[in-house]
Request: fold
Amino acid sequence: RDLELYDICIYSSVLWHNTDLYDADYPYAIRDMLKEYVALGGNLLYTGYSPTKAFELNAGYPVYFGADTFINSVLGISGANFSNLARFNGAISQVDELDHFTIDPDKTLPAYEGHISRVETLYPAPGAQVWYSYGSNYDPDTAYGEFQGEAVAIYNEHGLGKSAIFSFPIYATSPGPQIVQILHTMFGESVSNDDPLAPVSPGLQISGNYPNPFFQNTSLFVKGTGDGFLRMKIYNLRGQLVRTLDAKKAGEYDWDGKDDTGRTVSSGIYFARIRDGGKTAQRKMLKLK
Reply:
């Protein structure tokens, strides 16, 4: 079956590494789900060949996408270009927070001299940001080097979430800190020990909530606590406290989708968190309209 929103809603970021040169169009089948995931606060990082084929079934170049298309409105890509002759040897960072990428010579053909082919160039939509540009050791006046300086990675914000689309396979590059930089610095995955959304402790867990996603009410169940009547706190994606819950009975909690003032919260991703002494546990939930 195709991926559904409830399959990925428990994750704040999804990393999609496409390693296939030719059959890369599965994302097209689940665009509506990905659009909702990003709009509700999820982060999408996609790397691989032919993102315009993956998301829009594109088969010709140059190509341009209207403002109402998924790839434009959600991913921030308004068009693309491609040539079988062009050679790519790395991605040049356009933002201070990210390091360059370099193609690993051991992951390409010797005749390509440290380059790979089949890398699209991407045109940013209004409001989108270019993260990386096309690098090549060939003269830009030649067919091999004609795409030098064109965008190959675009960042965009849609609704409450973010996306970063790379038109080259990161697995073909030399090892480096870039993925960590993207997740921690750009997607905000890094947290400190005193953050309300900090990593959880082993032995204590919120074993699940039902239903998830939910529309009005959801029930949560806690295991591994010495005191089944601890208070549970609900946070939004910004780390702001939304609601404090008391157990209705040992280890069981109900949330009616309202904040501490009695107002119904907006659709999006929320975190249930509980502490027992020095232990903490967390559960991600998705509230829909």
